[in-house]
Amino acid sequence: MRYYLQQPGKNAQQIKNILVVDDEYDINLTLECILNQSGFKVYSFTNPLIALESVKPGLFDLAILDVKYIMKCRLQKCH
Predict the structure, then answer these.
(1) Predicted confidence band at 2 (pLDDT cuts at 50, 70, 90)?
(2) pLDDT tens by residue, 25-61
(3) Most exposed of 11, 69, 71, 78 (fewest Cβ within 10 Å)?
C-alpha cells in the first residue's frame, strides 16, 4: 500500500512541519531531501531521546518514526 502526501497549496490543508526519527542516517537524509523539495519543513533526528528534548508539543503535522528503533532505545535507554 502506498501513501502520497499532497503538496501544500491554497485549497489543501497544509502539512508544514514533519518530524523524522530513524537511526539510519541515509534514510533520514533521503526523507529530508524529498520532503524539503516538496515544500515541507523537516526536523530530522537519529536519536529519539534528543528528538524528544528538542521539540515542542503540537509543532508537527506529521511524524515519520522508526518504531522498532524507538522501542529498542526505550528498552536499552539509548545514548
Answers:
(1) very low
(2) 999 999 999 999 999 999 999 988 888 888 888 889 9
(3) 11
* Cell (9 digits) for 40: 515541507
Of 26, 22, 31, the residue nearest 50 (C-alpha): 22
**Of the candidates 77, 69, 48, which has an alpha carbon nearest to the alpha carbon of residue 19?**
48
Tell me the whole-structure pTM to 2 decimals.
0.69
- The percent of residues in the chain predicted with pLDDT above 90, rounded, is 32
CATH of 17-76, one of 3.30.420.140, 3.40.50.2300, 3.90.70.10, 2.160.10.10: 3.40.50.2300
User: Taking Cα atoms as reference points, which of 22, 28, 35 lies closest to residue 67?
Assistant: 22
